[in-house]
Amino acid sequence: MTIILFFLFGWLVKETRQLHYLLTLLILFSWYGLGIFYGFGYCLITDIQWRIKRHLGQTPSTEYYIKYMLDKITGLDTRANFVNRLTTYTYFGIFIIATGLFLKKLIVSDVFLN
Q: Which of these, 16, 30, 55, 79, could form a disulfide with 44 (CB 3.0-4.6 Å)?
């Protein structure tokens, strides 16, 4: 849950933006890079979360960690395709913002350092 919250809000804090952008790129690499081998949209973070849950004797009711967390927090049974769309749109919205902030920092640093 901490990783999800950091992904959602880490870009807001100037001091954590670089780490946040790194996480953003790692998620993208997991979905598309590792996805070549494990299936499109594969998420290493989700895989690790499920391994921990299984080790603790818990059986997930869904293959999607964000759906699992939303259902657990709200008590609802959200539709998986809705959660997947919401996750994807949120990811790419934050990716665009984080990339813009990263490029802005590079450009501003380059302009004022030279």
A: 30
Instruction: Burial-class residue 109 by CB neighbours within 10 Å (0-12, 13-18, 19+).
Output: exposed
| 47-51 contacts, C-beta under 8 A, 24 or more apart | none
pLDDT (0 to 100) of residue 110:
60
Q: List the chain domain ranges.
A: 2-113
| pLDDT above 70: percentage of residues in the chain | 95
User: Which residues lie below 8 Å from residue 112, measured CB to CB, with a gap of 6+?
Assistant: none
